[in-house]
Amino acid sequence: MMIDYALIWAGLIAFAVLAYIILDGFDLGIGIMFPFIKKKEDKETAMNTIAPIWDGNETWLVLGGGGLFAVFPLAYAIILPALYMPIILMLLGLIFRGVAFEFHWRARKSQHLWDKGFAIGSLVAALCQGIALGALVQGITVENRAYAGGWWDWLTPFSITTGIALVVGYVLLGSTWLNMKTTGSLQKQSRGIAKIAGVATFGFIGLISLWMIFIEQQYLHRWFDAPNIYYLFVVPVLVFIVGVSLFITLKRKRDVSPFLLSISLFLLSYIGLAISLFPNLVPPSVSIWDAAAPDSSLKFLLVGSAFLLPIILAYTTYAYWVFRGKVKEGEAYH
Amino acid sequence: MEFLDPVLLARIQFAFTIAFHIVFPGLSIGLAAYLAVLEALWLKTNKKIYLTAFKYWLKIFSIIFGMGVVSGVVMSYQIGTNWSVFSDKTGPILGPLMGYEVLSAFFLEAGFLGVMLFGMDKVGKKLHFFATLMVSIGTLMSAFWILSVNSWMQTPTGYAYNEVGQFIAEDWFEVVFNPSFPYRLAHMVTAAFLSSAFLVGGVAAWHLLKERKEKGKNEVARLMFSMAMWMAAIVAPIQLFIGDLHGLNTLEHQPAKVAAMEGNYQTQKGAPLILFGIPNDEEERVDYAIEIPKMASFILTHDMDGELVGLDQFAKEERPNTKWVFYSFRLMVAIGMGMIAIGMFSLFLRWRKKLYDNRFLLKTAVWFAPSGVVATIAGWIVTEVGRQPYTVYGLLRTYDSHSPLDAPAVAASLAIFVVVYILVFGAGIVYTLRLMKVRPGDRGELSEEESKVPSSVTLSNRLPHESSDVKNNEEDKS
């Protein structure tokens, strides 16, 4: 029997990227809403809810990038030069965001600068990730196994829109996370932000879904040709149900459900995107199989991954379990 | 023209970002192991002094580790942005190795770091020690895979080509355990331990010097200094031995690099060891050379009249930049010799029971605090510049590895990186130094008192600022 290693790896990389979007999504979201949190104590509590776990969250991004290099080197070699500027800016944003967790506690006079760095870094990183996603969806010019487009191809009204959409979506994840992890004034404020971000996210999902089918014929056919339309309509219906549930649970002041429903909203959007793009890894022309490394590489890494990924998931869950429950004011090692 | 060469700019960018990066994981490897040892000693003996030292270095470690993570994320993407042809061609071989680094090391460090930094009150002593141990093992596994990648680029084995010109693996064992890998790994991990030991020793010595007049016996600083000096005495000589083996291995596989290290332009028997001089590429000789006759041949061939291949055996476009390799090598070796001397002197003073009282040793140790870091960067320049003009030695040229990029884009991103790195990591270094200025013991004892009160409200707000209140002189009087 032939095992389609490229397909398995596409699934695993897709999982890593999704894990990244959800996990780093909520901590970047907290960075973005940081300037709007009024009280200094609340700011520090918000930071402390993510300080022990952001590092692990970001590792999924390294796995996404490193995994792409490992199993789809051609896609890695095309996408990174094509999205040069947004990726460089994202990395710079992540630098400021990452050091802020430590520097905030060590700085004296310049503390407010690192807090700004935390907020702006998170915003830039999120915006650039969204732009990169939009630029990928709208297609990348490829000739002779290399990027053949221009310098500013990534910058379009569509990619800007996806950038803003992701920022808003991350704020939804971040605010529902804080709603789950905190109490008092911070929780109340987070719930308010979550409501606004929820409406906006919902609107952006609709807007981008419609926009996509005008960008590329393939996306239109994928969703609306028979027989696909009969079973794919489940996705938008589920998005609608999840969206409504999100508002109900926020209104009823539930702790955990809004966060889980926000994750579901991301999950459904991600599935929708995957349905549109499949089997291309670099639309419109490079498929999963074109970009895959030789089977010897795919097999070699798969053996270890089959063993290591469950362990990673186990201790990641454990790390989250250790820091479960509401975070109280002033709780940190500093 | 030269300035607008995108490949040169991309090389500068890579060199700049990795030179910053290499410092942090290097220190993380050593400090994580040091923290694991301190915590183990604390668990075993239940003596508070170990916990105090642990907490002191944990804070410094957390900053250094954080800077390592963010600069490392940059590295993992820069290979694709600036070196896309290299990525496409070597991805099937190097990608899985880096994939294993992420899966076996990066996640392990990141997953347990939170528990290590924040979890003492939540998980108990033994599980906390386990977390520290996992972080330490993670840093070592990371070194294993990254040095495997780097070594394969230096001495590629176990590969074949496929129909689109990519390297593919024929034998994974040969790829991972390529000929220079064991030497490079041993050399680098030892360097990491020495870098951390001299950092710890330097900080401890600074405090011992400062408190000399007060006749105070800072037991915590003494413990740190003593441990650091044991490390120097035992490991620095071992490093000399490993470095020698590594040199012999390089002579076998990359003779042009060794010729540049030695400043050996002409192939000759009984080559002299050039202690110092100025390499002159035009005239193909070393000007103002101070040399020991026949010594280079003796070291490298174990025969006074052994023949050493010179740079003249390689076409000019096949040679690395001699000056960079030559000077960096001398700097690294000089620091290594200094470390050995300090280690030996410390043994002598220890025997005379004067380890903590000798001003000369303490002062030297302060000066040597950053020596390991400097030596690591110098050694890295020797090995990487020495690999030029190839990215994969002998097989893929640097000028055939880069992305289809225009010079302005690379120049712009380089400029941003330089500004941001200096700003961010400069601040990080300032904060690290500030933590090091705090008297060992003062804050450690305090935070242990406080940590008995679970989730103390004042802890997070008070302690960071406390450091500024500690009375200490702004400058080292020595």
From TrEMBL, chain B:
Region (Disordered): 443-478
Ranges of Basic and acidic residues composition bias in the record: 443-452, 463-478
Transmembrane segments: 12-35, 56-77, 97-120, 127-147, 185-209, 221-242, 324-348, 360-382, 409-433
Keywords: Cell membrane, Electron transport, Heme, Iron, Membrane, Metal-binding, Transmembrane, Transmembrane helix, Transport
One of the GO biological process terms: aerobic electron transport chain
Family named by the database record: Belongs to the cytochrome ubiquinol oxidase subunit 1 family.
InterPro entries attached to this UniProt entry: Cyt-d_ubiquinol_oxidase_su_1, Cyt_c_oxase-like_su1_sf
Primary localization class, coarse: membrane
Protein name: Cytochrome bd ubiquinol oxidase subunit I
Compartment(s) of residence: Cell inner membrane; Cell membrane
Gene Ontology CC terms, in alphabetical order: cytochrome complex; plasma membrane
GO MF terms held by the record: electron transfer activity; heme binding; metal ion binding; oxidoreductase activity, acting on diphenols and related substances as donors, oxygen as acceptor
Membrane topology reported for the UniProt record: Multi-pass membrane protein
